[in-house]
Write a structure and sequence with these properties.
By secondary structure, this protein is of the alpha/beta class. The protein has 2 domains: 4-268, TIM Barrel (Alpha-Beta Barrel), CATH 3.20.20.105; 276-380, no CATH class. Helices cover 43% and strands 17% of the residues. It is built from 16 helices and 15 strands. The chain has helices at residues 45-50, 60-65, 69-75, 78-82, 94-100, 104-107, 128-138, 156-176, 194-206, 224-234, 252-260, 270-276, 308-312, 315-323, 327-354, 357-369; strands at residues 4-11, 14-21, 24-28, 30-33, 56-59, 88-91, 113-116, 123-126, 142-144, 183-188, 211-214, 244-246, 265-268, 279-280, 287-288. The protein starts with a strand and ends in a 12-residue tail after the last helix.
Length: 381
């Protein structure tokens, strides 16, 4: 079946809802761990379930190159291939493709995008139609339209043309979408320009997708203010009865700001990426477990955390693993970081229910930002 969004309650613009999927009903707002190559790095599906993960992501570009969509289809689709019995979202591959397209004027054409494989340098060509056809074979629960991902520094004129191209590509992709159980989301672009975001949102909604994403906010170089503005400029034109997804955002502060502005779904590679470098989210900000001060710290990463890592291991032991380059250290930090963000979303849902979201935000920021906290933070957004 197609995913369905059910609005339960609101607190200002923030929404408490339920996402009905082929694999059950899940609460929103939610954070979605990223499993780029059909696996969330170092973690098993069982561990993700234990962390109360719901939707997870896989990457169309990477799975197209290796092992290939036909291999995944022969296995019975992504769920059987990776043994995950929860909802899966596949991105379009656009972000990776555009980062690999060296000459933007030459490589990005109306038909699609030319680029070189990061694996063997082979020249490839990805079109909106092919992206959707690959995702149909992967058999994810949610597929994403193929959009252009312009750089944050792109000019107004470039962004305007890019929005138009993204709309044309959205129509082309939707026209070839054949998987009846798979939902298809449209993507709103337009940089930090209010008129472009409004136009992109309105025109994308006219195409009647199953959900809507706000893109172009997690490319390299965007200022926080531009990210928040892009959300504010887009949200008023998105339907209330369909899910809203902010792509590629996973900083704890940004999750709160997105929820307050009306976002239902988030994803990001950040929790596992920083884990591999020895970093952990805590209520008092990020910590680097490699710091010498943790060598004799026999307490958990966070005292009140209910994750497997915190219930069973100390900072001193995890530090030893990380500095010894033992994979188990990255696994434990990944478990903690993903659970931290999922737990944050649980708390945000409760704050919406209790109508004290702004109070929750203030308390969280005070603890997380510490000396960097500015009591006028809200007024500066």
């Amino acid at each position: 079946m197609k995913v369905k969004y059910e609005l339960i309650d609101t607190c200002g613009k923030a929404r408490l809802g339920k996402l009905h999927t082929n694999y059950g009903v899940f609460d929103t707002p939610m954070f979605m761990p990223v499993g780029t190559q059909a696996t969330v790095k170092t973690l098993s599906p069982e561990e993700l379930k234990e962390m109360h993960s719901a939707v997870i992501l896989a990457n169309t570009y990477h799975l197209w190159l290796r092992p290939g969509e036909d291999v995944v289809a022969a296995a019975g689709g992504l769920h059987k291939f990776m043994n995950y019995d929860g909802p899966i979202l596949t991105d379009s591959g656009g972000y990776q493709v555009f980062s690999l397209a060296k000459n933007k004027k030459k490589d990005i054409v109306e038909e699609g995008v030319y680029f070189k494989s990061h694996l063997d340098g082979k020249k490839l060509f990805l079109t909106p139609e092919l992206s959707i056809q690959i995702q149909n074979k992967l058999d994810s629960d949610i597929a994403m339209s193929f959009d252009e991902c312009p750089a944050a520094s792109a000019s107004y004129d470039y962004l305007k043309n890019s929005v138009e191209r993204t709309l044309r590509w959205a129509k082309r992709g939707k026209a070839v979408h054949q998987n009846k159980r798979q939902s298809l989301f449209g993507i709103v672009q337009g940089g930090a320009y209010e008129d472009l975001r409004k136009y992109s949102a309105q025109e994308t909604v006219k195409l009647d997708f199953d959900g809507y994403s706000i893109g172009g906010v997690a490319n390299d170089g965007e200022a926080k203010e531009d990210m928040y503005a892009a959300i504010d400029y887009s949200i008023p034109y998105l339907p209330e009865d369909k899910p809203r997804y902010l792509m590629g955002v996973g900083e704890p502060v940004d999750l709160i700001e997105g929820v307050i502005r009306g976002i239902d779904m988030f994803d990001c590679v950040l929790p596992t990426r920083i884990a591999r470098h020895g970093n952990a989210f805590t209520r008092n900000g990020k910590i680097n477990i490699k710091n010498a001060k943790f060598k004799l710290d026999f307490t958990p990463i966070e005292q009140d955390c209910d994750c497997y890592a915190c219930k069973n291991y100390t900072k001193a032991y995890i530090r030893h693993l990380i500095v010894s380059n033992e994979t188990f250290g990255a696994r434990l930090l990944s478990i903690h970081n993903i659970r931290f963000l999922i737990k944050e979303m649980e708390e945000l849902r409760e704050a919406i229910k209790q109508k004290n979201l702004l109070e929750y935000r203030k308390e969280f920021l005070k603890n997380y930002l510490g000396d960097k906290y500015d009591k006028n933070f809200k007024e500066k957004l």
